[in-house]
Amino acid sequence: MGFVVTLDGPAGAGKSSVARRLAESLGIRYLDTGAIYRAVAYRLDGEGISSQEEEKMAESLASIKIRIEKEGIFVNDENVTGSIRSARIDRIVSGYAASKAVRGALLGLQRAQADYGDLIADGRDTGSVVFPGADIKFFLTATPQARAERRYKELLRKGEAAVYEEVLARIHERDDADSRREIAPLLEPPDSIRVDTSPMSEDEVVHRLLSLIKRRMTQDID
Ligand code: DC
User: Fold this and answer.
1) I want to staple 7 with a disulfide (CB 3.0 to 4.6 A). Which of 51, 55, 122, 171 is the partner?
2) E strands, the chain, where?
């Protein structure tokens, strides 16, 4: 297993853009575990299987092959990268992510990614369940208001109509669903470094994490 960095936290804490930039700076691979859950949700939903149908999901998952390539994420031979960030997938993915069949099927795939070299993974349980032995773990958080404001500004930038109060309400709903579910709820690993990004710019978060990772990497070499 290579050097593994994990980055967990609630929706909107800025994990994926920070993780992507860290991976680029360090020249290591980025594993977006949320994208894997989204790809599975897209496929099962497309097959007409709801997140309540555990048996049907397990059956279908047995014949699904997911590949993560430079070009994107593939389900069997379909590149689904462009289809997994829709409003529909946003709405339904947490239902599938709460399923035992889905989480069990995806665990080995996520772990295997560390066999190919150094890795930075982001998600909800990468430090607690997927890579409990990671070299350095971060828990990125921010107040619901700070996260809602970022998301709201992002939507406006994209030219979408958005109401701040509605964005905030959706953040509360997702936090609730992700932290209350029985299987792999959002947990803060006790050995992770907590970073509250509310008062920080993305650049500041990246610099802070980068210096901590580099320090840990050299400690390991010494
Ligand atoms: O980070 P995201 O919005 O792309 O995640 C999509 C969904 O997958 C979200 O409902 C949380 C879930 N998820 C999870 O349960 N465990 C992970 N390691 C990553 C994502």
Assistant:
1) 122
2) 4-8, 29-32, 66-69, 72-75, 78-79, 119-123, 136-141, 193-196
Give the pLDDT mean for 46-70: 94
Q: What is the CATH number of the domain that holds 204?
A: 3.40.50.300
93 lines ligand 1 (CB under 6 A): yes
Ligand 1 atom having least distance to the Cα of 130:
18
Domain hosting residue 160, numbered range? 4-221
Global pTM? Answer: 0.90
Cβ–Cβ < 8 Å for 38, 106 = no
Ligand 1 center to residue 65 CA distance, Å? Answer: 19
Per-residue pLDDT tens digits for 121-175: 999 999 999 999 999 999 999 999 999 998 898 888 888 888 999 999 988 988 8
Half-sphere CA count of 34, side-chain side, radius 13 A: 23
Tokens of 2: 């290579």
